[in-house]
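Hey, I was hoping to borrow your eyes for a little while. I'm sending you its amino acid sequence along with the C-alpha cells. Take your time with it, there's no hurry, and the full record follows here.
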Amino acid sequence: MNLSYPSENILVLGTSQDGGYPQTGCRAECCVEAWNDPELKRLVSSLAVLSGNECWLIDITPDFRHQLKMIESQLKGEPQISGIFITHAHMGHYMGLLELGLEVMNTHDIPVYVMPKMKSFLTENSPFSQLISLNNIKLMNIDENVAVTLNKNLSITSFQVPHRNELSETVGFKIQSLNKSLVFISDIDSWEKWDVDINTLIQNNNILLLDGTFYSDGELSDRRIQDVPHPFIEKSLKKFSLLEVVDRKKVYFTHFNHTNPVNQKSSPERAVITEHCCQLAEDGMVFAL
C-alpha cells in the first residue's frame, strides 16, 4: 500500500430498505419492539467511502442527517463530501439530495454521479432540478463498467442489474482500492435474471454487500411480494452453498425490509444465515480497504 496516502474505509451508514426500520405507520409485530427501543432501529441503506477526511456516498437517503453525524463521528471531524453515487430512483436512494438545497445545507457543486436515465429523472423533476439550477449539485455522467477514479488509491465502477426500472436504471457499484474490492448491490430482481454469475462475482471480490430485502416468501400481508421482486435470503443461501466457506464469509446481506425477521436479533433466521457462513451488515460497520 502507498503509505503516502490515507487509509481507505467503507462505513455502513444504513442497512434498511427505503422505508427504514421501524417503518412509518407500521404497527405490526415486526416493528413493535423497534418502536419501543430506539437502539434497534436501522437507517436506510447507504455507504460512505472514506479516505482521509474525504467522503464519497453511495446513495443519499432520507436519513442523511443522522448518517452525516455517523461520518463525523468516524472521522472525528467534518468530512469533505467529494461525490455522491446514486444506484437508482427509488425513494430511499436519492431523497437525501434535498438536504443539500437552499433550505438546509445550501452546498456548492457537490458532484452527483448518475447513469443517463437517473440524470434525466433529476433534471426533469422539481425540486431536484432546483438543486442543479442553484448549483447545489452538479450531475456527473457515469458509464457502465467504466471506473471513476477518486484518488490514486480508489476507484468506483458501476454495473447495471435487473430491477423495477420504472424511473431509472438500477446499478450496483464496485469500490476498488489497491488492496481490496467491495461490491454493493442493494436492489436486484433476482440473481437468475442477471447475466452475471453471482457466485463467480463473490469468488472474484473481497467483500460483498448484497440484497437481503426479504428472507422468504409470505412476509407481506397487504401486497403481492411478486410486485416488489428481490432475491429471498433463503434462496440466496442455497445458491451460495455451492461456494467454499472462505467465499461465503465474504457475503453480508443488507437492505432489509421492516418485515424481514433478521431484524430481530434472536430470530432463528439469523442463526440459519450464520450456519451458512454468511453474515448480516449492521449500521456502523467499518470495512477496511
